[in-house]
Amino acid sequence: MTIQEIADWLEGEVVGEKIDKAPDILRVAKIEEADSGSLTFLANPKYEKFINSTRATAVLVSRKLDLNKYRDRASLIFIRVDDPYVAFLHVLKRLTPSIELFEKGIHASAVISPSAAIGQNVSIGAYAVIGSNSKVGDNTKIGAGCVVGNYAQIGSDCTLYPNVVVYHQCMIGQRVIIHAGAVIGSDGFGFAPKPDGKFEKIPQLGIVVIGDDVEIGANTTIDRATMGDTHLHNGVKIDNLVQIAHNVVIGENTVIAAQAGISGSTKIGKNCMLAGQVGIAGHIEITDHTIIMAQSGIHRNIEEQGKSYFGSPADEARKAQRVYAAMKMLPDMIREIGAIQKKIDALEKELLKK
Fold first, then answer.
1. Which residues fall within 8 angstroms of residue 110, CB to CB, at 6 or more apart?
2. What is residue 213's DSSP assignment?
3. DSSP labels for 311-353?
4. DSSP code for 19
5. What share of the chain is helix, strand, coil (3-state, %, to 5)?
6. What is the pLDDT of residues 151-185, one digit of tens each?
7. CB-side exposure of 96: number of CA atoms within 13 Å?
8. Measuring CA to CA, which residue among 148, 246, 145, 143 is closest to residue 203?
9. Which of 131, 313, 342, 352 is a Cys-bridge partner for 150, taking CB atoms 3.0 to 4.6 Å apart?
10. Where are the domains of the chain?
11. Is a pLDDT exceeding 80 seen at residue 17?
């Protein structure tokens, strides 16, 4: 594609002196690795330093970026857009040929119960198992080695990568993507202590309900409810290696990064962001539009929307960061206090002599 064709498609504005002599765009690349014929993007200010050294033919930038400071890069062409990252993703999809990961139809080694309802244009891979009275919607792709339990429901246009397990009775909506090794509907961690010191297992009789347009990362586990539902609402995005316990509710369009752990019966609101390795105690509520920074531990309800939290135990981010900065000063402060104490002791001895 030519630069002008890309700009027109993205409804962007071309800025550059040598657009007529520029080569066609053949590929997309990171700004620090791009070469001639590549399109890259600048969304994070941390990467602005690469503008002066990139060999890319064109760069997608924000309409707000001041380009006057790059006048000496006469050969570099800019395309102004509203959101350079989103625009880059559109071009990436268009220029990168897709690879079909699933064979069409049902593999001969797949085991499908006669009572299962399989929709139209469904792909089921080798050695997959589809249980009795389960349902699989139209255009859904189920990879090799997947297991869909009895009475489970998978909606239309879903993708289950290899070795996904969906336990009995769990319900998955439309256009859901579940990556390899994820387990949906395993037992919640419930055990009652007995007088003899042993533990008795609490029956986990609920299910997992996953809404539409949800994506779940590889080796993530989502436990079924003790009673009722563990519920991920529409648009939730879960990274790899996340643990979601029984009866957790996650609101629409919330995103959770890798290695986070959410304890039982916790409710997380809409449009929240949980960074990597966040830990959340059980039976608490987190309101909408909350940001929890990496490795933070949440032990109480969060009720005020639009706040960021950091630390373990977590506090509002600005306060927590000031506390953290003060903690780094403690070793020097201790040495200074020790030196002051020695001086005080010496003065007291001198006074006692008098």
1. 124, 125, 126, 127, 128, 129, 130
2. T
3. ETTEEEHHHHHHHHHHHHTHHHHHHHHHHHHHHHHHHHHHHHH
4. G
5. 20, 25, 55
6. 999 999 999 999 999 999 999 999 999 999 999 99
7. 13
8. 246
9. 131
10. 3-95, 111-319
11. no
Contact (Cβ atoms closer than 8 angstroms) between residue 77 and residue 59: yes
Q: Which residue in the block uniquely carries the two structure tokens 């997959």?
A: 128
AA letter at 134: S
Instruction: Write the pLDDT tens digit of every residue in 253-292.
Output: 999 999 999 999 999 999 999 999 999 999 999 999 999 9
pLDDT value, residue 318: 82
Catalytic residues: 246
Q: Which CATH class is domain 3-95?
A: alpha beta
Q: What whole-number distance in Å separates Cα of residue 78 and Cα of residue 31? A: 13
What separation in angstroms does the CA of 204 have from each of 132, 187, 282?
A: 20, 6, 17
Q: Read off the tokens for 304.
A: 């005020």
Upper half-sphere CA count for residue 200 (Cβ side, 13 Å): 7
**DSSP per position, 56-70:** -SEEEEETTS--GGG
Identity (one letter) of the amino acid at 352?
L
Q: Alpha-carbon distance 82 to 169, whole Å?
A: 44
Q: What is d(CA 306, CA 288) in angstroms, rounded to the nearest whole number?
A: 7
- Nearest 10 degrees: CA dihedral of 226, 287, 295, 186? 20
Distance CA 275, CA 332 (A): 32
CATH topology match: 3-95 vs 111-319:
no
Contact 266, 292 (CB under 8 A): no
**Ramachandran category for residue 303: left, alpha or beta (phi over 0 → left; psi -120 to 50 → alpha):** alpha
